[in-house]
Amino acid sequence: MRTFAWGCLVALWAVLPAQAQTVVPLKGQSSQQMQQDMSDCNGIAASSASSASTSSAHVGGRVKGAAAGAAAGAVGAEVRGRQHDEIYDRASDDAKQQYRQNRAGEVAAAGAAVGGMRQRQERRQDRRAQSEAQATNSATAYSGCLQGRGYQVSP
């Protein structure tokens, strides 16, 4: 449902700028011919906007965040342990390893959440930029089509 509403909004947004322009016939076209030409050019503009859509994949945000978090957690645990040398030195190597792994796991989970958030934010920005590009392409295609058919198009 959300995708359908988004698609309708993009389609309306792509068509509205084309309809807000002033079209003046330069070759004495009739009103019927103008209607037909405008309808044809609207279709061309809509198809040019939809065909220009490209999708860039943003994948691996969570994995990258988890990896960075795990590394930071392990290093942080080691640094924290070294701050308390007298206690840290008495701990067995297995206990030290377990402590570093636990910290790495905790921080990796936070890193995965941050990585996922960044990935979603990048996708939203890409969709916004893509919608703006489609609207511009649609308006340009509409104007170019009508100018090619003998009309003056003013914004």
Can you tell me about this structure?
The chain has about 160 residues and is mainly α. Helices cover about 80% and strands about 5% of the residues. It is built from five helices and two strands, in the order αβααααβ. It has a two-stranded antiparallel sheet with strand order 1-2. The protein is rod-shaped, with a radius of gyration of 29 Å. Residues about 5-20 have low confidence and may be disordered.
Across the major sheet, the strand order is 1-2
Largest sheet entry: 2 strands, antiparallel
Secondary-structure content class: mainly alpha
Count of individual helical segments: 5
Number of strands: 2
Give the N-terminus to C-terminus distance in angstroms.
34 Å
Gyration radius, rounded: 29 Å
Strand content: 5-15%
Share of residues in helices = over 70%
Low-pLDDT regions: 4-19
Order of helices and strands: HEHHHHE
pLDDT averaged residue by residue: 80
Shape category:
rod-shaped
